[in-house]
Amino acid sequence: MTKGSNTALSALSENTGSVIVSLGWSSPAGDGDADVSVLLLGQDGKVRSDADFYFYNNPVAADGSVQLLDKTPTEDGNEDRIGFDLTAVPPEVDRMVVAASRYEGAHFGELDDLRVTLSDAVGETLLRFTVGDAGTVSAIIFGELYRRGDDWKFRAVGQGYDSGLAGLATDFGVDIDDDAETAVEAVDETAGAAAAEPADDKRPVAVPADAVPEPDPPAALDAVPAPRRPAEEAGARKPAARPRTAKKKAALPSTPPKSLAENDSWKPARLFPVSALKSDRDREMRATSVLLSVMTQVPRFGRRLTAAFGAPSGRMETFTEVSLPHGDTPRRPDGVIRIERAGKLWTALVETKTNGNPLRADQVQAYMDIAARRGYEAVITLSNDVALEGSPLVDVKIDRRRKHQVALWHLSWAEVAHQAQLLIRHEGVGNVARTWLLQELLHYVQHENSGCHGFQNMGSAWVPVRNGISDETLCQGDPRALEVVESWERLVRQVCLRLGGELGQKVLPAQRARRGTDPEARRAQLADRLCSEGRLQAELRVEQAPGLLSIGADLRTGRLRTSIEIPAPEQGYPLTWAKRLVRRLAEAPADLHVETLVEGQTGGPRGTLERLRPEPADMLPKGSVAITGFRLSLFKNMGSSRGNAESSFIRSVDDAVHRFYSTVMVHLDGPAPRRTAVRERARV
Questions:
Q1: CA dihedral over 263, 266, 270, 275, signed as positive or negative
Q2: Which of 33, 138, 242, 395 is deepest in the core (most CB within 10 A)?
Q3: Which residues, in sequence order, are bridge partners of residue 349?
Q4: How far is the C-alpha of 318 from the C-alpha of 326, rounded, in Å?
């Protein structure tokens, strides 16, 4: 699409009752980010109340019409996704504006490939709009969904605001106070009130049907709501570990009550027992039934899992062992999810695998054919494997001649555990009984007997590739190297899910733009590097961290390296920087390696924290050399086996990341405030 153009969604697809709008960008440095927001407007072009402003502190509409979903890794960075259930949008809402904003002096001109895409309920991309010439604006309206009779249309807007999110929100009637805290709290509180009370009736003001708004930005204000302040700037502001919504959090006891058991051999009774599981079939049936039943009893959890698949928000029922006709032999999918909204049904068939068993293409193909004939919307596969960008787990044929199209989605057991952890530990579900149900589910999927362990095997190519690197017989182009790279990428994505669930923060794989946009070409490049250098490398972006967490596995030496590069402060003296860093790392491991990064050189002074603690000045380079930052690294021996045993490679990577974050990164400051002017580098 071009700027200002519009199109009717019904002309592009028949599956537009719910849609996914994705905002994406790439950063040359690999660390650029922005916050997405949505405003629901009446016919007067204003919000009905502040509750119609959805952002990271108010991410979900009470009626399910809008839901800000988590970031999704793409081939060149990440995308922020927003789910819209168009059948649930109140009739008095005329337009829904989709925007994004940057903060701390950052602007969109620093990002590349600003784009918005819209996909229908089956995951088919319907349109794409690229925003050009962003310049120095700190907020942009990417596009808007608006009504025309009974139809919905999308308009490509691409309008920027120099006054940031505050100016944009004010123009559409959001009540922004001068104090950032007051504004954020106001939006949070009105979100709960709006869910219980209808909006006041307002007399509509007629506006042109296809007019693109050209608001006159007000005087510059502070970016309200403030995105994510560093801890030292928050002052007396009430901390909020996770975005608040109208849901009330049911707090777990800080310390579990003392057990009444006589000794450790007495095991507590569990809602979902695992002791009787004998075969893979038993595990599949039990795991499917456990998950689907909890999804219906904990609606927020069920909605969290299904929203990413284009499912509407509504009454959910789930079924297991359903028999469906298919030729001479009926098929029995492991489960069925059915959601009713406004008299319409959304249905998905579920195929489950546990214990590392692979999905069978013929099975999935049969379910896709059945779903297409019966008018179902999706087939969901659930297994320990992790899907990769541009690389489906199973190849199925989709008959484009069919009027009804079926979406194929994949869910990993690691993602199930991740979402349960977020709700239990950080967000809450507003009910003690539902919290207990989620705890029982989490205990079940993490038990070794359930078979729901997530990605747990590096594959048959792992040992030959490791041996080939050790004896220098592995040649570039060997397909086994590509298999190892794909397994490594799956492992990294699972590590992100586990760490993110523990922290209650977004943890995503970071992809730098210079590595290309084609995922298959990028993996081939990494496979060639593995053959020539014997290394696997990945970077994780942890929300609120001062830099990217890097993981490196050297298969020649059998060593794992976890590290982070933190930039030098904007002000002060180098010796002050060194002393402050050592004080921050007072509780970090003594074997932590600290390296000073200097301008124009590959490396500066380095040493272990144990040696540098009494003499921080040893971190400073000789002469008049500019310090650009510091690299902190921990090393450990990596596991060798391909499975998930204590001595395995998978377990060693997971442990290394957890240890580095919990002993090093937690002691570091958050990301430094951005400055628009080019700073003068301090010299020793």
A1: positive
A2: 138
A3: 336, 379
A4: 21
